[in-house]
Amino acid sequence: MPVRRIIIAITGATGAIYGVRLLQVLREIPGIELHLMVSDAGVLNLHQELGMGRKEVEALAHVVHHIRDVGAAIASGSFQSDGMIIAPCSMKTLAAVAHGLSDNLISRAADVVLKERRRLILMVRETPFNLAHLRNMTAVTEMGGIIFPPLPGFYHRPQSITEMVDHTVGRVLDLFAIPHTLTPRWNGMKQDD
Ligand SMILES: Cc1cc2nc3c(=O)[nH]c(=O)nc-3n(C[C@H](O)[C@H](O)[C@H](O)COP(=O)(O)O)c2cc1C
C-alpha cells in the first residue's frame, strides 16, 4: 500500500486538543505517515490545556521535526506529501505563511506545500479578528490554502467537548478524502416526535 504522508504542526493558539486529536485519529489509519512539528508556544499550550508534555505528543507521530531544522526533508518540495495541517494555527504563524516568511520549519513546510499546490489547512484561532488577521487569511486563501477555523456546530447536538472536537477533526479529514466515522453525516432535518 502506498504511504500517504501528512505533516501536522501544533502552534501556540488555544486549541491544542485539535492537533492531538488529529494525531490520535490519523495514527490508527494504516498507510499514513505522520510528520509532526510543535512550536515553543505550542508546547506551552499543550501543557496548559491538556497537561501533556512535548514527548508524549511527539510519540503520536512517526517522524518528529524540530522547528529550527530548516534542512529537514519536509523543507523541500521533492519530499512528497499529501499536505499539511496546522492545528491550531496562531495569528503569528498565519502571518508567516501569508507572507512567505519561511522563518522556521513550520512556515517553510507550509510554503513548500503551497508552492507544490498541495493541501494546506490552517486551523486558525483568534477572536475577534483585526484587519491584519483578516488580510492574512485572505492572502492564504488566494494562494490556495484553506482557512479552517475550528468553530463547533451545534446542529448535531453535541454532548461533550470530545464530540465537538471530533466533529471538526472529521471535517478536516474529509478535506483529505480520508474515510472516518468520527461524526454522523447530516441527513437533513428530523421531525421531533
Ligand atoms: C495560553 C495561551 C493562549 C493563546 N491563544 C492564542 C490564540 O488563540 N491565538 C493566537 O493567535 N495566539 C494565541 N496565543 C499567543 C501565541 O502563543 C503567540 O503569539 C506565539 O508567539 C505564537 O507562536 P507560534 O505560532 O510559533 O506558536 C496564546 C498564548 C498563550 C500562552
TrEMBL record:
Function: Flavin prenyltransferase that catalyzes the synthesis of the prenylated FMN cofactor (prenyl-FMN) for 4-hydroxy-3-polyprenylbenzoic acid decarboxylase UbiD. The prenyltransferase is metal-independent and links a dimethylallyl moiety from dimethylallyl monophosphate (DMAP) to the flavin N5 and C6 atoms of FMN.
UniProt lineage: Bacteria, Pseudomonadati, Pseudomonadota, Betaproteobacteria, Burkholderiales
EC assignment: 2.5.1.129
Protein name: Flavin prenyltransferase UbiX
Flavoprotein domain mapped to chain residues: 5-175
Family as reported in the entry's similarity comment: Belongs to the UbiX/PAD1 family.
Residues annotated as binding dimethylallyl phosphate: Y155, R171
Enzyme class: transferase
Keyword annotations from UniProtKB, A to Z: Flavoprotein, FMN, Prenyltransferase, Transferase
Reaction catalyzed: dimethylallyl phosphate + FMNH2 = prenylated FMNH2 + phosphate
One of the record's GO molecular function terms: flavin prenyltransferase activity
Record keyword Flavoprotein present: yes
Binding sites annotated in the UniProt record for FMN: G12, A13, T14, S39, S90, M91, K92, T93, R125
